[in-house]
Design brief:
Catalyzes the cleavage of L-kynurenine (L-Kyn) and L-3-hydroxykynurenine (L-3OHKyn) into anthranilic acid (AA) and 3-hydroxyanthranilic acid (3-OHAA), respectively. Its cofactor is pyridoxal 5'-phosphate. Keywords: Hydrolase, Pyridine nucleotide biosynthesis, Pyridoxal phosphate. Its EC number is 3.7.1.3. There is one protein chain. The chain is an alpha/beta fold and 420 residues long. The protein is built from 14 helices and 15 strands. α8 (190-199) links the parallel β7 (172-178) and β8. α1 runs antiparallel to α14 (391-406) and α2 (46-60) runs antiparallel to α11 (291-304). The longest helix is centred in the C-terminal third of the chain and has 22 residues, at 309-330. The two termini are 37 Å apart.
């Protein structure tokens, strides 16, 4: 099939051949909507409604506090972590789902800095390296922690992946990167970057917010040190769903952080006045868990068990290839700038284009039922979730985009919403 001359009928044929197509029926998607924002908030698995009703009506409503034991609430963070682990190349008892990505970043950064401080050359390792274009909360958490510690730590912001080679040296304590950049969709070579960090004695912390459930991740193969990520994007856990944190077995004994809440205690119901850290991955927990939100995450994870990350990745690349080609063919005269890498090895599962009136165009698309999102500066971002995005969705989205651009069917002076 010549992708430069692809038709709507060709897209229908691709959907008929798609081995993941049937999984779309397990999601609640409005009939007239083309949803290309699963990289911000995943669609609702139909099973999530029944699961929430079960937790609210039966486990909470009927069984009340006995559900901590009877319904397994106490072990839910670990049990869900074990379900998630295969999607990111983790082993059993290395992942817990808990708190937010920001809070988990705080824990992981604190643990990494403490581990480094205990090394023979720890006094000279005072630099955290991250991207200036990293998702802001990652930078903010590093800034907040290092300022609070007041021990001379510095944050070195790089402006391109190529700067890593010269930036990492004997003064680097931690390299903290997002595996897939939230703006551009640039995909780092995790194994290569981690090896470079380790070569200089630095630790490597990966944010998988735009990776988990969308691209193949193998934390163990890459020899990564820590990882965090959210569950409400490609994992379809629901708005504000708790996030996850990964600590490999080799680091668990050294993993300590200041948020020593009772759920991380070795015997929380012993009610001891002094904190004694649990010897396993539960040391990454803090306080009492949000059970209703946690429970709904399982509905999304169960869908992943019906396929493989390699199949998901294959479709992701096919969807994004098609979108890029169609946009560049049908919208060629509108000065759109592709900021997402063309190379498969460097591309995540969303595609970003720049346009002078990007926000206005996105709002016009949303009014047409094509939901993407806007990111500064002047970026239109479109996410492709292989579990439910179809090839016809791609065709129809570009059809709407080209019509809006060709006929200037957008309000360049539109007032922005609080959430863009």
């Amino acid at each position: 099939m010549n992708i430069n001359h692809i038709t709507h009928s060709d897209c229908l044929a691709l959907d008929q051949q798609d081995p993941l197509a049937a999984l779309r029926q397990q999601f609640r998607l409005p009939a007239q909507m083309i949803y290309l924002d699963g990289n911000s908030l995943g669609a609702q698995p139909k099973a999530a409604f029944d699961r929430a009703q079960q937790v609210i009506q039966e486990e909470w409503g009927n069984d009340l506090i006995t559900s901590w034991n009877k319904a397994g609430w106490f072990d839910l963070p670990s049990r869900l972590g074990n379900l998630l682990a295969p999607l990111i190349g983790a082993q059993a008892e290395e992942v817990v789902i808990t708190d937010s990505t920001s809070i988990n970043l705080f824990k992981a950064i604190a643990a990494a800095l403490q581990i480094q401080a205990q090394q023979a050359d720890g006094a000279q390792r005072k630099v955290i390296i991250t991207e200036r274009s990293n998702f802001p909360t990652d930078i903010y958490m590093a800034e907040g922690l290092t300022k609070w510690l007041d021990r001379g730590y510095q944050i070195h912001l790089i402006d391109s992946p190529e700067e890593l080679t010269s930036a990492i040296n004997q003064h680097t304590a931690l390299v903290m990167l997002t595996h897939v950049n939230y703006r551009t969709g640039y995909l780092y070579d995790m194994a290569q970057v981690t090896a470079l960090a380790h070569q200089h004695g630095a630790l490597c912390l990966w944010d998988l917010a735009h990776s988990a459930g969308a691209v193949e991740v193998d934390l163990h193969q890459a020899q990564a040190d820590f990882a965090v990520g959210c569950c409400y994007k490609y994992l379809n856990g629901g708005p504000g769903a708790p996030a996850f944190i990964w600590v490999p077995q080799r680091h668990q004994a050294q993993f300590h952080h200041p948020l020593t809440g009772w759920w991380g205690h070795a015997a929380p119901f012993a009610m001891q006045p002094n904190f004694q850290v649990t010897p396993n991955i539960r040391r990454a927990l803090c306080g009492t868990q949000p059970i209703v939100s946690l429970a709904m995450i399982e509905s999304g994870l169960q869908i992943f068990a019906q396929t493989s990350m390699s199949a998901i990745r294959q479709k992701s690349l096919a969807l994004t290839d098609l979108f890029i080609q169609l946009v560049e063919t049908r919208c060629a005269r509108h000065q759109l700038g592709l900021v997402t890498p063309r190379e498969h090895a460097k591309r995540g599962s969303h595609v970003s284009f720049t346009h002078e009136h990007a926000y206005a165009v996105i709002q016009a698309l949303i009014n047409r039922g094509v939901v993407g999102d806007y990111r500064e500066p002047a970026i239109m971002r479109f996410g492709f979730t292989p579990l439910y995005t179809s090839f016809v969705d791609v065709w129809n989205a570009v059809d709407a985009l080209s019509d809006i651009l060709d006929n200037q069917l957008y309000d360049a002076n539109i007032q922005r919403h609080a959430v863009t």
